[in-house]
Amino acid sequence: MTATRTPGVPAIDEGSLISTNPATGEEVGRFPVASTDSLTAAVARARDAAAWWAGLGFSGRKQRLLAFRSVLTNRLEELAALMNREGGKPRADALVEAIAAVDHIAWAAQRARKVLGRRRVGSSLLLKEHAAFLEYLPLGVVGVIGPWNYPILTPMGSIAYALAAGNAVVFKPSEYTPAVGQWFVDRFNEVVPEHAVLQIVYGLGDVGAALCRSGVDKIAFTGSTATGKKVMAVAAESLTPVLLECGGKDAMVVAADADLDEAASACVWGGLTNAGQTCVGIERVYVAEPIFDDFLNRVVARAAKLTVGAEPSSDIGPITMPSQIEIIRRHIEDALTRGGRAVLGGAEAVQPPFVNPTILVDVPEDAAAVQEETFGPTLTVTRVRDAAEGVRLANSTGYGLGGAIFSKSQGLNLARQVRSGMTSVNSALTFAGMPALPFGGVGNSGFGRIHGDDGLREFTRPKSIVKRRAPSLLAATTFDRTEKTISQMLRVVRLVHGRSK
Ligand code: NDP
């Protein structure tokens, strides 16, 4: 039965989580809320599945993950339509997100053996007759907790890498996007029907908390910093390791020698794509004095042209989570009260469930719009003396997720000075779509990495094995050693390490 409910507010009814379209309130689907018993059973099934999945080896897993990737690729339009219906995401944004997720699955599947497979490593001074081997073994069962804003790309950053590394996964999607989660988990299970290698559990935050207590071998959490702290506190009870991908307040710094049109285009897209509901979205822009006015005019001209609405073809869709609208409104009003000016949008831009693009200038650095995650289609644009001052201000919040630099001559140098996990030079957000690059933050943005070689290793434990391959040359590690052995040891160590050069 299709009912119309309060737009975007997930409800629980007779044990089912009901997700709704954030613009229309149309019911998108009903999903059984996991009880503690069903969660325990899911983790037990995952444990059995993990042994089978690990036993397939790199090539068996690669073949299945690549088949999963192909199924998703051939049904991208269907997935994008569902993402639009459940999260309000415009079709083009949904496709870009889903394509990036597909690319990550393929990369993780193809790369896993090279990064994690057994290799011989160097021996040591007193143990020359031993061979040393290193490999990265799966942890077992990984619990993945995901947010709603990128309902496939974000969880896949953990899921694909955990699976490629040989783990089974129990996934708890955000209560705002269970249908998208169910859709891709169903596709995986069509390709891998034998065992419960990838399962999904539905519910509110308490189900996420129960997953943290369920005995999984690692929790990969993506969401707000506040919830990340709760996850870590619960995981500490059982010393369950955690990976925390939390919020951000990313800045773009535009140097005087930047290509202004490219910079304005990237700034508007990086700040306003997905209605600004992007963990690595540009929220603050610091612009060198000589080009400030020219740059601002270009940004405003571009942002003013964007279409806002529920249609899949809109540039900017609705705010997915209704409670976020009040935060966006507070940030805008606080900025205006404290001397800021809206050169586009402003307080009247907030028209639930939509927020029109809003560009703020002259906002004090300690205002909420500069310090706190806004998660809406707003940008603060601030005049700075030069790029160095821009970088200093970019580094002045507790977050440290991503960011961007625009400069023709100093890009790489400035990028290295930004205190964050990722920085793009002369583009925005592009690091998120590069499977080879690790993704994650510092400070309030969390720790640990998804994507890249580090993202594969994150879901493993290094296993070190030493195998004796010949009788001891120098019997140092036995009580059979003699004074002669000791003097030989000393001679060898002085020869190798005793000289200063
Ligand atoms: P939340 O922190 O509200 O929720 C994230 C997930 O945690 C949801 O599945 C949520 O379930 C679950 N959860 C809630 N309470 C608990 C709990 N006590 N224990 C365990 N799990 C719990 O974040 P949002 O969904 O609102 O996502 C937006 C945030 O995510 C932003 O801050 C954004 O910056 C960040 N983000 C970070 C990314 C990164 O890679 N660094 C990428 C994308 C987003 P439920 O929804 O049912 O409450």
Automatic annotation (TrEMBL):
The keyword Lyase does not apply. InterPro entries: Ald_DH/histidinol_DH, Ald_DH_C, Ald_DH_CS_CYS, Ald_DH_CS_GLU, Ald_DH_N, Aldehyde_DH_dom, Aldehyde_DH_NAD(P). Residues 1-21 are annotated as: Disordered. Pfam families: Aldedh (PF00171). One of its GO terms (molecular function) is oxidoreductase activity, acting on the aldehyde or oxo group of donors, NAD or NADP as acceptor. Keywords: Oxidoreductase. GO terms for biological process: aldehyde metabolic process. The active site is at E245, C279. Residues 18-465 form the Aldehyde dehydrogenase domain. Belongs to the aldehyde dehydrogenase family. This is Aldehyde dehydrogenase. The lineage of its organism: Bacteria, Bacillati, Actinomycetota, Actinomycetes, Micromonosporales.
